[in-house]
Design a protein that fits this description.
Layout (H helix, E strand, L loop, with lengths): L2 H14 L3 H27 L4 H31 L2 H7 L2 H7 L4 H34 L4 H6 L1 H19 L4 H21 L9 H10 L29 H23 L11
Helix pairs in contact: 1-6, 2-3, 2-6, 3-6, 3-8, 6-8, 8-11
Length: 274
């Protein structure tokens, strides 16, 4: 079985699992956003505002929507990337490929390639859906439309690769706990309850703070829908290289750890079912 045929098998497998609904939901979401921006401009013009005022209001709404998308897209990527490999093990697709003599490295590459097709389509829909009202309202320049998607695509694909590599040997629930549950507890709970208890020893507090560095934070590194960090007319982020270096190290850690576990994982019987 060739790699191209194997990608087709896993892509059909994803389609059967109704992952196309993600593309449909993304399309409906951007259509709703476009309609909301258009209604904002029409309402402002109907109230007697000038075209510049109407476009500024619509641009402000678009910026708020983009901020929400930046917050939720990484969570969506984790949810999608964590189910590809475990589900193919459960329904026997991986066992079938192994019984045909396909190496496990090829299986992992084909699974990630199939996932990348779905994620690429979803990210393209989101970018194009924001680009149309962005150019209309002046929130995005043509150069940003042409190139800003790279700042969205690269961090999200890096996150998807890390999540996918762990899920090669872990269940979907275990992967969710690692990439969603543990970071939420380590980073959010102390802020909600007002910090760590006073009786907790200082070394433990420091260890917990440093433990949070093992998990990627891609939303702070995504400048989308613009080419520069911060405001559209602002200067690039002064310390963007530190988050980028941290993300690179963390992604590399999970890639190595996931692939190391994958090489030693026992998939059980590889005999073909007669």
């Amino acid at each position: 079985m060739t790699l191209r045929g194997l990608i087709g098998v896993f892509l059909r497998d994803l389609v059967r699992r109704r992952m196309l609904w993600v593309i449909v939901l993304a399309t409906l979401g951007v259509l709703a956003a476009n309609y909301g921006i258009q209604r904002t401009m029409e309402r402002a013009i109907g109230e007697g505002a000038s075209w510049d005022v109407a476009t500024r209001r619509a641009s402000a709404n678009l910026e708020r929507l983009a901020e929400q998308v930046r917050d939720w897209l990484p969570v969506t990527i984790v949810l999608l990337a964590a189910i590809v490999a475990p589900e193919s093990r459960r329904n026997g697709t991986t066992q079938f490929a192994l019984s045909c003599g396909v190496r496990r490295g090829q299986i992992a590459a084909a699974q990630f390639a199939a996932l990348s097709v779905i994620l690429g389509v979803v990210i393209a829909i989101v970018h194009v859906g924001f680009a149309i009202p962005g150019v209309t309202t002046g929130a995005m320049s043509p150069a940003e439309v042409a190139a800003a998607w790279v700042g969205l695509l690269v961090p999200l694909f890096a996150l998807a690769a890390a999540v996918f590599c762990l899920s090669l040997t872990a269940t979907a629930i275990e992967t969710y706990l690692v990439f969603l549950g543990v970071p939420f507890v380590v980073r959010t709970i102390p802020n909600v309850v007002g910090g760590f208890p006073h009786w907790l020893p200082r070394p433990i507090v420091t260890a917990i703070d440093n433990f949070g560095l093992l998990f990627p934070e891609v939303d702070s590194l995504i400048p989308w829908p613009h080419l520069s960090y911060g405001k559209p007319s602002g200067l690039p982020h002064a310390e963007w290289h530190w988050p980028a270096a941290h993300l690179s190290v963390v992604i590399a850690f999970w890639l190595v750890a996931g692939l190391w576990r994958y090489r030693r994982h026992d998939f059980g019987s590889r005999a073909a079912v007669k």
